[in-house]
Model the fold of this input.
Amino acid sequence: MNERIRPRVILATCCLSLFLVAMDITIVNLALPAIRRDLHASLAGLQWTIDGYTIVIASFLVLAGSTADRLGRRRVFQIGLALFSAGSLLCSIAPTIELLVMFRIVQALGGAMLNPVAMSIIVNVFIDPRERAQAIGVWGAVVGLSMAVGPVLGGFLVETLGWPAIFWINVPIAMLAIVLTRRFVPESRAERPRRIDLGGQAMIVIGLATLTFSLIEGRSAGWSSPPIVGGFVLAACSFTALVIYERRRLDPLIDPRFFRSLPFSMATLLAVITFTMFNGGLFLGSLYLQETRGLSAQDAGLCLLPIAAALLVFSPISGRLVGGGRARLAIVSAGLALSAGALLLVALDLATPLSRIIAAFGLFGMGFGLINAPITTAAVSGMPRAQAGVASAVASTSRQVGTTLGVALSGTMVGAAAASPAFATATHAYWWLIAIGGVAIAIVGIIATGDRARQSVAAVRSLLDA
Done:
């Protein structure tokens, strides 16, 4: 193959894996009412269907990246694709909500092996800084595109073939990616692989799992009940111990020195806030459209189409803004768009015109499309090539943490109203939370793009190089 075309094929292959993992989070949202009916699931069961997947991905992304550095990136990438495909097939035949959550975990173990490894492959294939920046821009755009396509495609599949079809669709895409990987992606390893950090890995799993458990089960079990209080305490202790432990390791799972880079720290914070707001809103919006307004899955997917349209328009605009040194404009505009969309829904009820809801979703898509490229670029900017994969993995982890928190928080805030006519009113608090979060995104964006931020990047790069 022409040597100029080969890198593009490799980039497309890596983007296929990203498309799978990101789309799977949103495509399931449109199937939740159908899953509830067929498997007799509770609201908590639906939350675990999303969060069981995202917790595992968030927990094992960094470990997967370091394992690939040691064993070979192409090998681990192919294993991840095969495991993701197998998990998808198992999900499609799950007879109970408990087994569906279990099979989602299998699927997520494969998904965790894809994104950080794919980013490492991209960074090592695209040596020229300008070409690498363009490749990362494409990567960031695919994040937004995949999360936009999910609801629309999910609605169509649920309506025509049933909810198992949302998992069938993953299999041919994964198989294509495996074939392309075997044919075109070169094997690569780190010159000095990082040692496995089992202690840090355990603390991340315990912290995320107990925090999510407490948020999801707190309303039904009682916020002051021993299991819930104990869960919050254990989560806090796990994350505190993780920081102390990682600072003392030679090869930490997450290098604390990364966070001395202000753009990296702000990118992590932006990812958590943005994905919390977006995915919590998507979770509530999908349930509202189908269970409160009585729309079919396909019609609900069409109502979410403005998200996809806005992402298609604004993701490349964001990439050009970031490439032209105007990341601040992209981030501030994203925050304001998210706030404006949320303000259209703070009085949501049964009589709210669909035109207003569609406009709100369009603004959400605009904000989400503008934010992805700055997050990815800020996370890896100034990092040595050998560290770019780990830095990207931390950014991806932050996205999954935000998704997990968004679904847990939104479900908890509506509580028992999820299955009642009062559901629309119960969502008001979460729309206000998104409006506030959008303002916070704009403020963080200003901090992340100032002179002090640029100085911190240079300082951290020198530190890591040394």
Observations:
- The radius of gyration is 21 Å.
